Amino acid sequence: xxxxxxxxxxxxxxxxxxxxxxxxxxxxxxxxxxxxxxxxxxxxxxxxxxxxxxxxxxxxxxxxxxxxxxxxxxxxxxxxxxxxxxxxxxxxxxxxxxxxxxxxxxxxxxxxxxxxxxxxxxxxxxxxxxxxxxxxxxxxxxxxxxxxxxxxxxxxxxxxxxxxxxxxxxxxxxxxxxxxxxxxxxxxxxxxxxxxxxxxxxxxxxxxxxxxxxxxxxxxxxxxxxxxxxxxxxxxxxxxxxxxxxxxxxxxxxxxxxxxxxxxxxxxxxxxxxxxxxxxxxxxxxxxxxxxxxxxxxxxxxxxxxxxxxxxxxxxxxxxxxxxxxx
Length: 327
Ligand code: SF4
Description:
Elements: H1 2-14, E1 17-22, H2 40-45, E2 50-55, H3 57-60, E3 70-75, E4 79-84, H4 93-102, H5 104-107, E5 113-115, E6 127-130, E7 136-139, H6 142-150, E8 156-158, H7 165-186, H8 191-208, H9 210-221, H10 228-244, H11 249-260, H12 269-283, H13 290-302, H14 306-310
Parallel strand pairs: 1-2, 1-5, 3-6, 5-8
Antiparallel strand pairs: 3-4, 6-7
Helix pairs in contact: 4-6, 7-10, 8-9, 8-10, 8-11, 9-10, 11-12, 12-13
The chain binds iron/sulfur cluster (SF4).
């Protein structure tokens, strides 16, 4: 069983995961001024694992290049429109929302989306909204907003935030989980598959939020063979909402200590002490997460446990991504 899981993980590492991306981040010269915003970390590093599928909504709706810049503007108290800077009579709001709707089929096959920050079309959050006085950073790009409304569970992140180790790890982890979810759906999800999926991700959810873990457990307790697809849909949404909030060091410590409990019997006093000290150093910020995880994996190789071996917490994405070395 454990050998099977290892080969499954190796196989997963070799398949590139479909992820959408704002075209300008891949170096395509599609910006209003004819330039790009190439992000080499995304293109070169994430591109080794993700099949990055580029799209520029402004080109899609027929705005030429170069073109006049557009921006979000408040009309009345609540209405936000996307208009050219130099011509408030033109309005691209509906066209950008339509572009997102027309891409629903494509979006439904993606495991994540990387967006260009600050863009009135692609920005995920804190996009400037202009009114008569000063711009306020509380807008969402029109295309991005519609896509997130259509697919509220889709892992979405901005390139600027990927520079933060915790947010980067959080996004990439969600992309891998989304991928595993689609694989399960492709093969036809049974009640047993759904319960097994949750069991294998339980420790990951625990590291994010223990209460959400309980809620997901309660939801699944109501799942039956005849309602499994509806429950699965609700489960995915709740799971992705829970995982969107980055795991804290404190919650990781609780999770690591919980896992440590599975080694209570087989480990000798010296090994137990080493593990406890390592988790404590992680708690104090003296060691990154990879160290207690590596030590735990080392002990579980000697004293295998099926539940832990099957848990994605111990091996959530390819090791070479080195994400746990920085959190
Ligand atoms: S619309 Fe999006 S993809 Fe196109 S240039 Fe602007 S930020 Fe980049």
